[in-house]
UniProtKB/TrEMBL annotation:
Membrane topology summary: Multi-pass membrane protein
Alphabetical list of CDD domains matching this protein: SLC5sbd_u3
Organism superkingdom: Bacteria
Keyword Membrane appears in the UniProt entry: yes
Identification of the protein by name: Sodium:solute symporter
Gene3D superfamilies from the UniProt entry: Sodium/glucose cotransporter (1.20.1730.10)
GO molecular function: transmembrane transporter activity
PANTHER family in alphabetical order: SODIUM-SOLUTE SYMPORTER-RELATED (PTHR48086:SF7), SODIUM/PROLINE SYMPORTER-RELATED (PTHR48086)
Native species: Streptomyces arboris
Entry's family note: Belongs to the sodium:solute symporter (SSF) (TC 2.A.21) family.
Amino acid sequence: MAVDYAVIVVYLAGMLAMGWWGMRRAKSKSEFLVAGRRLGPWMYSGTMAAIVLGGASTIGGVGLGYKYGLSGAWMVLTIGLGLLALSIFFSARIARLKVYTVSEMLDLRYGGRAGIISGVVMWAYTLMLAVTSTIAYATIFDVLFDVNRTVAIVLGGTIVVAYSTLGGMWSITLTDMVQFVVKTIGVLLLLLPIAVIKAGGFSEMKAQLPTEYFDPLGIGGETIFTYVLIYTFGMLIGQDIWQRVFTARSDRTARWGGTVAGTYCLVYAIAGAVIGTAAKVMYPNLASADAAFATMVKDELPMGVRGLVLAAALAAVMSTSSGALIACATVANNDIWSRLRGAVVRDGGSGKPHDEVKGNRAFILIMGIAVILIAIALNDVVEALTVAYNLLVGGLLVPILGGLLWRRGTAAGALAAVCVGGVAVIGLMAVYGILANQPIYYGLLSSLAVYVVVSLATPPTDAAVLAAWRERLAGRGAPEAEESAPEPATT
């Protein structure tokens, strides 16, 4: 295993080096939080694909393939479809807003009264997303190298927190590009063909497995519909995804770069399902479907290659973890703490100049430590992730898409939708169970009904607010760009 360990150590050291380089570049709030809004199409595509394809898409995607066959691809397929929808229909308008958070967008659209409540909901979602990604380190290290769960979480989490804190979005962007390349080589170019060959090829896989393993809808129509509601719609409104859209240097980059990333996700989804199906042929009696990925890597790959594919799994986890962490810290600082601090200043508190980069760096460190501690204490990853996505979609989908698509939507309607949708989801999860489908179905319907009824029952949004909103959507009227180093746009 010495060669495999060497590959992993080199990879992890490279992540820290990227963090140090990013620290030297991130000199302003814009540079630190959104990479100066200067990413070109290739770097934008790679980083966007890296953040949406995390441990759940890699380890979980292979596990679903092991359990359901080719239809196990649907979870990751719906992620890719959501990214395609975001990129084609919304990303250009989102990029032109020149904001930092989803809550800032809601403030612009509804007149400054929807931000803090939506910020709390978004913060809870990004926190849980970061926690579940961090827990995945334990799965990788424990199965392959027999490392204690707590040690694995602390080791992986500390490296992510370190490079994210040092350089913010620049460090995360650079590491994501490396992680994208490593995932492509490790999963698509190495593990996929090796798994199919070891299983005897597709003809042998079909001979060994039941026919439902090759049914595209074998996982069930209701499950697919739930995936669409949670993951496709979740891609449209998550702070972690929007913050990457904000890094694009133009709306064209956001649209076409995201389309490339979404297409890549579809390929990755099918690859994971095929790998899982092959694992079912070779290891038909695994205790857990999620162990299929690690078992394949440990038993079927030669040394060196095994280390590279393990690095690919770490890359998948780290890209999602770092993206969720900076999103969580950005929301906590800009949407919650800054508003509270502003209220203190208005009431007579200190009005000293505030170092934006230093403040955001401190919040990443604080949130990172909290994520590691919660990850150590938490055991059920699936339940935590389900709670996060249910809250996000049930509480925020309607007011966000309503603000983008329906002029008559009002601040009162948006606040009511956030509160009613969020409470409904939580209450229904308590009644039906966290993993039940009913909470997201009924929570989303209640949010939509309240949004429409309250919006129609209250005065329309002020004409001046809507005029300013339309100006920002058109790319005009945005605040002046922050000072940053006069470097060329990054491709």
